UniProtKB/TrEMBL annotation:
It comes from Lactuca virosa. The keyword Nucleotide-binding applies. InterPro entries: ADP-Glc_PPase, ADP_Glu_pyroP_CS, NTP_transferase_dom, Nucleotide-diphossugar_trans, Trimer_LpxA-like_sf. This is Nucleotidyl transferase domain-containing protein. Belongs to the bacterial/plant glucose-1-phosphate adenylyltransferase family. It comes from the Eukaryota. One of its GO terms (molecular function) is ATP binding. Keywords: ATP-binding, Nucleotide-binding. Residues 64-320 form the Nucleotidyl transferase domain.
Length: 478
């Protein structure tokens, strides 16, 4: 049986109310050993002259704050809201903004992310100039180390990027949750005739986002020109602007940049050939050189998943019926992901309130409240789950496998899922966890921070995080 195409899904979703959105129709995985690249010889029209560069993971500091969710995956591959991955929000922003020339630069724990991108976005309309290409980190005789940062990664991938006839490159972190029409960002960039445009948070001034703060001349005559950059407490790189009183306002950065093609190449190759990072080396350096750097002030919801608590709260937001900070059900700005083609969830005498249930779940006479349940989750009779995130399972176990737990180990009789009579509250359960009967995951001692990874879990901000594949025998209490 043939699978439904993305254009069919788009027509179904939008009920023919507007022209179908185009999705990437070609997908490649590239490394330094591949000399050829498939591009159209025709220079694209101005409306289609933008290529997006999406980074699959954050810095080491940000990554460690999402541990252990990042133990076997990058930030962009972390599941959210039952059916999605974090990177889906950013790729969907591109698609909804009619940007369908996308490069994904991946490195840290990238197997899961690369697989998801390949399977989720390799279909679509058969247009000649649409693609999503993964550029995996590599080592070569010239570069025998891994990517050292965003600037280093882009410089080492210029052999691919330079072949694309884009006028501007849109640089995006791949692990943030927000909705932005990038066409508005690009329109402001072009209207200001800027060399670089940085996106900043209009409603979160001077908050520590990890991307520094930009001092902006809010004088209307200067169209939000950037006149300085601050990381932590020290202001540097002031940029004189004619007619400016230098009494600018500070705005927090988002790690989102629009860079003109020739400016990007010159900065990376000539001006700052040794720079590793865009945020605190190349962008401030461009300001110091007197380039036209402007700011695009974004006033919508934005969450950069900088902590386990932030990730937990974003999932809890998805269970709300209204006034969501981020709406996964917006038909005018949909979120795309991998169609899994799983059967509907089977619910038997279960009480479910204010929750999100993924596909292919088996819920037997249980109680679920204010919880996100991921695909293929099995919950036994009498189990109670409240205020939690259950990521689900990668596989279905057969009845014999369920009876012996799929193995011959010490706790071989415990199958994947939540066992009968168990109670889970304010927890994040990573994939393929085996929770036995009458287990209590409730943070009994009200611990705020604790590292029990050897026992299969940690506690951060009072939230219990169960690691992927952990096993908890019957009657366990956390």
């Amino acid at each position: 049986m043939s699978l439904p195409t993305f254009q069919t899904l788009l027509k179904f979703h939008n009920h023919h109310e507007k022209p179908p959105l185009k999705l990437p129709s070609r997908f490649f995985i590239t490394n330094s050993q591949r000399p050829d690249c498939q591009f159209s010889p025709f220079f694209p029209a101005i409306s289609q002259s933008v290529a997006a560069v999406v980074f699959g993971e954050a810095s080491e500091h940000q990554r460690s704050r999402l541990y252990p969710l990042t133990k076997r995956r990058s930030e962009g591959a972390i599941p959210i809201a039952g059916s999605y991955r974090l990177i889906d929000a950013v790729i969907s922003n591109c698609i909804n903004s009619n940007i369908t020339k996308i490069y994904a630069l991946t490195q840290f724990n990238s197997t899961s992310l690369n697989s998801h991108l390949l399977r989720a976005y390799s279909g679509g309309l058969l247009a000649n100039q649409e693609f999503l290409e993964v550029i995996a980190a590599y080592q070569s005789p010239e570069d025998n180390g891994w990517f050292q940062g965003t600037a280093d990664a882009m410089r080492r991938c210029l052999w691919v990027l330079e072949k694309h006839p884009a006028l501007e490159f849109l640089v995006l972190p791949g692990h943030h949750l927000y909705k932005m029409d990038y066409q508005k960002l690009l329109e402001e960039h072009r209207n200001n005739k800027a060399d670089i445009t940085v996106a900043v948070l209009d409603n979160m001034k001077e908050e520590n986002t990890g991307f520094g703060s930009f001092k902006i001349d809010v004088n209307n005559n200067n169209n939000n020109r950037v006149i300085g950059f601050k990381e932590e407490q020290e202001l540097f790189m002031p940029l004189p602007v004619n007619g400016s009183n230098f009494n600018g306002e500070m705005f927090s950065g988002m790690g989102i940049y629009v860079m003109n093609r020739h400016v990007m190449i010159k900065l990376l190759k000539e001006s700052f050939p040794k720079a590793n990072n865009l945020k605190n080396e190349v962008i401030p350096g461009a300001i110091s050189l007197g380039l036209k750097v402007h700011a695009y002030r974004f006033d919508g919801y934005w969450e950069d998943m900088r902590s386990i608590e932030a990730y937990y709260e974003a999932n809890m937001e998805s269970t709300k019926k209204k006034n969501m900070k981020y709406n996964f059900y917006d038909r005018d700005f949909p979120v795309y992901t991998l169609p899994r083609h799983l059967p509907p969830s089977l619910v038997t005498n279960a009480a479910i309130t204010d929750s999100v249930i993924g596909d292919g779940c088996i819920l037997n006479r249980c109680s679920i409240r204010n919880t996100v349940i991921g695909p293929r989750t099995r919950v036994g009779d009498g189990a109670v789950i409240e205020d939690s995130v259950i990521m689900g399972s990668d596989i279905y176990q057969s009845i014999p496998e369920q009876r012996n737990g799929g193995g011959d180990g010490k706790h071989a009789s415990i199958p994947i899922g939540v066992g009968e009579g168990s109670f889970i509250k304010r927890a994040i359960i990573d994939k393929n966890a085996k929770i036995g009967k009458n287990v209590k995951i409730i943070n009994r001692d009200n611990v705020l921070e604790g590292n029990n990874e050897t026992d299969g879990y940690i506690i951060t901000s009072g939230i219990i995080v169960v690691v992927r594949g952990a096993v908890f025998p019957d009657e366990s209490i956390l």
